[in-house]
Amino acid sequence: MPLAAQRLETARGSRLLSLALCGLMLSACAVGPDYKRPDAATPAQYKEAAGWRQAQPSDSLARGAWWELYGDPTLNALVEKLNSANQSVAQSEAQYRQAQALVKSSRGAFFPSANLSVGKTRSSQGTGSSSSSLSRSSSGIQDTYNAQLGVSWEADIWGKLRRGLEANEASAQASFADLAAMRLSQQSSLVQNYLQLRVIDEQKRLLESTVQTYERSLKSTESQYRFGVSSKAAIAQAQTQLKTAQGDLIDLIWQRAQFENAIAVLTGQPPAQFQLAATTTVPVLPSIPLGIPSQLLERRPDVASAERSVIAANANIGVAKAAYYPDLTLSLSGGYSSSTYANWISLPNRFWSVGPKLATTLFDGGQRSAEVDRTEAVYDQTVAKYRQTVLDGFREVENFMVQLKVMEDEAAVRAQALEAARESLRLTENQYKAGLITYLDVVTVQTTALTNERSVLSLLQSRLIASVQLIAALGGGWDGNTDLSAKR
Question: In this structure, what are the phi and psi dihedrals at residue 24, rounded to the nearest 5 degrees?
């Protein structure tokens, strides 16, 4: 090669290298605003915190497995089954994997892309004369064999690719937080259904015992009626009392079946193939310590999801603004092209090309400006949603705290009422056995005692449900891990 030609090629290569280095240097910047967490109203302490125990780092509570607070092995096994077989959780998990795939795709955009093509084409070109075209229809056909390797790379000068990756990573983290929120929601539903079922079992045992007592009372009243000691009205009252209790007992059967079927579906099983045996105990009401309100922002997965949506929206503003600037693409291609197969891959048939390309849009009728406006509006929307999610979280915690506190006071009063009703029943039965009062007086006191027994159980059920709802409102116990980096 002549010396002048070599110098020319060297100069071209130097310019290309300089341009590439400039692109790399410029790629250190990224247009668009950097993310800053939006301000959210966070109180120094909960309004209803009086009387609650402060959470301590050395607390013995299990992190994450909050359902273990209720001390029920059957419940623990059901929740573990839910974690692996719940279909709503499976849907959210699949959505999270889709988000992960988008992150991988965004990272791939930073690397050069290479493509290889090998092919054969047959072509013909006319001469402009119909007569000559007819005479040369055979000889005018030409075969071309091509083999080409191309490499191209887009320099991320304005940070469009990096902002896109930032947005996709934030979306993936939001998806992971959504998965955690769905799992917590399903766990909460299962625990609530299970606790209600166990209270129904206790109510069933109470009514079964009551029915047996009423049956004995009816037989005793019928016997006294035959001896002229009791009246027909007393028998009718005893029958009414017995049938009412039996009806209430039957009503519990379908209520229990509904909770059992709900648990089956939550654990990914057909109701026909699931059965939960009755037990003789009701799970204990746990003691729930509270952290400071600011920890709620780290614990609750819905808050984490809302904030990461803000991060994604903020990054998308940078992607939209990068569209104003030109794209720089460096490409290199080379290969072989020949009209004959025999001499296809040979030095005389080689070809190559290399060079940069700058591309930008000169006029788009305001489309880029409109896209920036849209992404900024989306950002404002996600910020408002984040703040509203935080406010809703505090509201839920305050509601369940005051509910549990009031119910605790109510439980103490109802326990006293129940004790008094039991004592009244004992004294009334003794008076009846001594012949001092009629059986109608006994029926009234028995009904009052049963009503108090069932009220205490219903209140226990409400307190158990409220405790589950408070734990869920606090973010599902004390496991605030919603970080995508821990799951990669």
Answer: -65, -40
- Token readout for 198 is 């166990």
- Indicate the residue type of 191: V
What is the average per-residue pLDDT within 443-466? Answer: 94
The model's pLDDT over 42-77, given as tens digits with 9 standing for 90+, comes to 776 776 666 555 554 333 334 478 999 999 999 999
Residue 375 near residue 316, CB atoms below 8 Å: yes
- CB atoms closer than 10 angstroms to residue 73: 8
Q: Identify any residues that bridge with 144 across adjacent strands, giving them in sequence order.
A: 121
The overall pTM is greater than 0.85: no
How much of the chain is helix, strand and coil, in % rounded to 5? 65, 10, 25
Q: What residues have CB less than 8 Å from 198, skipping those under 6 apart?
A: 72, 279, 281, 282, 283
Contact in structure between 350 and 422 (CB atoms under 8 Å): no
Q: What is the pLDDT of residues 75-95, one digit of tens each?
A: 999 999 999 999 999 999 999
Q: At what angle do helices 439-473 and 160-226 cross, to 10 degrees?
A: 170
Domains and CATH numbers, the chain: 30-111+157-327+371-487 (1.20.1600.10)
Residue 3 one-letter amino acid: L
End-to-end CA distance of the chain: 54
Burial class from Cβ neighbours inside 10 Å (0-12, 13-18, 19+) for residue 334 reads: middle
| Residues sharing a CB contact under 8 Å with residue 342, sequence separation 6 or more, in sequence order | none
Rounded mean pLDDT, 119-127: 78
Instruction: Say if CB 413 and CB 426 are below 8 A apart.
Output: no
